[in-house]
Amino acid sequence: MNFKYLIVTLLAFVGSSLFTYAHATNQSTYENETAIVFEANDGQTTDAYEGFIWVPENRNKADSRMIKVSYVRFPSKAQNKGSPIIYLAGGPGGSGIATAKWRRFPLFVGLTEHADVIALDQRGTGKSNNLPKCTSSQNIDLTKVTDIANTSSRYRNAALECHQFWQQQGIDVLGYTSVQNALDLDDLRKHFKAQKVSLWGISYGSHLAFAAMSLFEDRIDKVVIASAEGLNQTVKLPSYTSNYFARVQAQLNGDEKLKSKFPDIQMLMSKVHKTLLDNPMEIKIPTRDGKEIDFLFQKHHMQLLASMMIADPNQYLAMLLQTYAELAEGQTEVLIKILSRGIFNNPVIDFKLMSFAMDVASGITDSRLAQVKRETKNGLLGDLLNFPMPHLNKVIPELDLGDTFRLPKPNSVPTLLFTGTLDGRTYVEGQKESVAHLTKLTQVIVENAGHNLYTISPEVLSRMLAFFADQQVDTKPIVVEPAFIKHLQN
After folding, report:
1. CA atoms within 13 A of residue 121's CA, in its CB half-sphere
2. Domain span at residue 421?
3. What is the mean pLDDT of the chain?
4. pTM score, whole prediction
5. Cα–Cα nearest to 72, from 25, 41, 104, 37
6. Does residue 43 fall inside a structural domain?
């Protein structure tokens, strides 16, 4: 018998022992919880509780079915515990429990110095997901010239097919919005018998935190976010992409050899895009089974690839710059290496409900959409950074949450924001706009960090702990080395 399974079984069976453990660590157990030994991917372990709550799929319907929302709770041993800290994963579609198993495990454990920490699988994700993936009848021919207008049309048709498919499965698609998702957090608060909860999130997780702050500000204690995405920022502004690459260029200019190789990366990218627009490239992509796929590589493919690879200034950004440099010389070695990972191998359009619906529901205001369209004409990556948004905007009209949701109101919840200067997904300028309505904001700039910055420096956790403990937070910038420079140098 598995040793860890035996431990869990004994803890669940011997009620008196569990009571003694809970009493000794100043903990309470809650309904639907089971004691477990939680193991991270690197083998580290800690005591935890696995639990769940039942919530309405769609609170706007009196006869809505109930769905299960699962979590793992890391108990605090503090004598005077703070409000439970609920982790909100990004995506949308990320799993909080999976994140806790990954390299952020030390943060989950570290924050238990202050309070119980909850790794939440939001509705429709991870262990809270029993929703079928939808594979549509729509496909993109990988061997023919296509354009974004045609691709967008096919995606919208696929979305309508999938909406019908999910309805036929008895699933209420209208329940998968950031409003319903945020209300789950208040139900968790009640489940934990807490007056307030604190929120800790990243990217879409910050978007969800903003939604919760708008809905029930008085029941939120503190908020820590990184890589902030505002309620009207599901689609990022194309003009900020140029600013991002200007910051990347400034780092390249600090190394004479790299400055010589990449004297103007925006000009390089534009040149490659123009070449691919005029003369799409016929290539063969090797697959894992030893075969090859014929593929006509075009401008929008390169833009989509860039959108996927610029989030963090690491080896992927280095590989992207090398790809542009090679393509400018008619070479494809690095490109083939990247594409062999299967990025464009599947021509059939499919969707996962949670990530699809959350973005479509949050949508975009008409004025911002008009701005995006204006900026797309000269944008390096067009409007593809958040594809398939805004192309799916209002594809299911009744799913859209409306401008009242998207326009934030002043908010006084104490909030700590970490912003990476080389974040290629939620740009610095956008993050500044996303928190303009917060009256109790503390911001820490992390120089040269990207989108996933929580483990970039031990200083991040240190300042989070100070914030949760109501201590003065050091707002001096945290400075790290841009990893992509070293990758390009090697």
Report:
1. 22
2. 3-85+93-129+409-479
3. 93
4. 0.93
5. 37
6. yes
